[in-house]
Write a structure and sequence with these properties.
The chain contains no helices and 13 strands. By secondary structure, the protein is mainly beta. Strands 2, 4, 5, 6, 9, 12 and 13 form a 7-stranded mixed β-sheet that branches. It has a 4-stranded antiparallel β-sheet with strand order 1-3-8-7, with no helix packed on it. It is globular.
Length: 133
């Protein structure tokens, strides 16, 4: 049975760091892409980052470029999201999701290329990130 489990969320002050982990079971990451999405209360779900563990190809939404880093560990079947210089607007429930594909799924929304959550096949239950002083 294919499962994803997120961990690593918590409370952090603005400017601080957190590392989220997405542990996959029941499948090998080599044939899949793993993406992180987030959703804050009252806001739409937003694609944050995506990785093709087969070749390390990555995608980041503009608001996290230079601050977040996604990485994959095929041996551990785990994808990490290192989040630095956190801002209050980064606070949200973070979810990892997967799709059997060699491309991170994107769509054009509001004139911008964004990750497409509708194409993701499996989702974790999420981990909460709070950024507050």
């Amino acid at each position: 049975q294919l499962q994803l489990e997120e961990s690593g969320g918590g409370l952090v002050q603005p400017g601080g760091s957190l590392k989220l982990s997405c542990a996959a079971s029941g499948f090998s990451l080599d044939d899949y892409v793993i993406a992180w999405f987030r959703q804050a209360p009252g806001k739409e779900r937003e694609g944050v980052s995506c990785i093709r563990t087969s070749d390390g190809g990555t995608y980041y939404t503009n608001s996290v470029k230079g601050r977040f880093t996604i990485s994959g560990d095929s041996a551990k079947n785990t994808v990490l999201l290192q989040m630095n210089s956190l801002k209050p607007e980064d606070a949200a429930a973070y979810y990892c999701a997967t799709l059997r594909s060699d491309q991170c799924p994107t769509t054009v929304k509001g004139g911008m290329i964004q990750l497409n959550p509708d194409e993701m096949e499996y989702w974790g239950k999420g981990t909460l990130v709070t950024v507050s002083s």
